[in-house]
Design goal:
158 residues, alpha+beta, Arc Repressor Mutant, subunit A, 2 domains, two-stranded antiparallel sheet, 4 strands
Length: 158
């Protein structure tokens, strides 16, 4: 009888994850363990981001930024924070509805506006946080008032 043993191992910053067994078991549990320990793997022993790890690549960095700014769950407040993060930490100069959907997905928000495009338009019209990009249909950019909102008005004093 041929016995198959499957093993995956990942080690970084003093954390090592190894799972051995049949293929389904290993793949399922390895991903669970890796996700549970991802924040430890992206920080060194002092709790600072480890050299060579870009905190912008981690959904945890986005989550930390949003939690620091404490926007309301409404698209009018959350969307500018997500776009601001992408602009300043990931180099996103302009965005469209798919970029915003991906930011929501990365932040792990399941309750997105029904129409992301309409929410962008409403935020643009009502708050002035976004403006359309000339000659780039469907693309927007964060305005100075959107930047000011995220930098100076959030988080609000309780």
């Amino acid at each position: 009888m041929k016995e198959t043993n499957y093993k995956l191992r990942f080690a970084k910053n003093g954390v090592e994850i190894e799972v051995t067994g049949d293929k389904n078991f290993v793949e399922t549990h390895f991903n669970d363990l890796l996700n549970d320990n991802l924040s430890k793997l992206t920080k060194d022993r002092t709790g600072q981001p480890a050299p060579g790890n870009s905190s912008a690549d981690s959904k945890f960095a986005l989550r930390d930024f949003v939690e620091e700014k404490q926007p309301k769950d409404s698209a009018t407040e959350l969307m500018p924070v997500l776009v601001y993060y992408a602009k300043h930490h990931e180099g996103l100069k302009q965005f469209n509805k798919n970029d915003v959907r991906n930011l929501y997905r990365r932040y792990d928000i399941h309750k997105q506006p029904q129409s992301v495009y309409q929410a962008i338009l409403d935020t643009s019209r009502n708050k002035g946080y976004f403006e359309s990009v000339p000659k780039a249909k469907g693309f927007f950019k964060l305005t100075e008032s959107g930047e000011y909102f995220v930098e100076a008005e959030l988080p609000r004093a309780h």
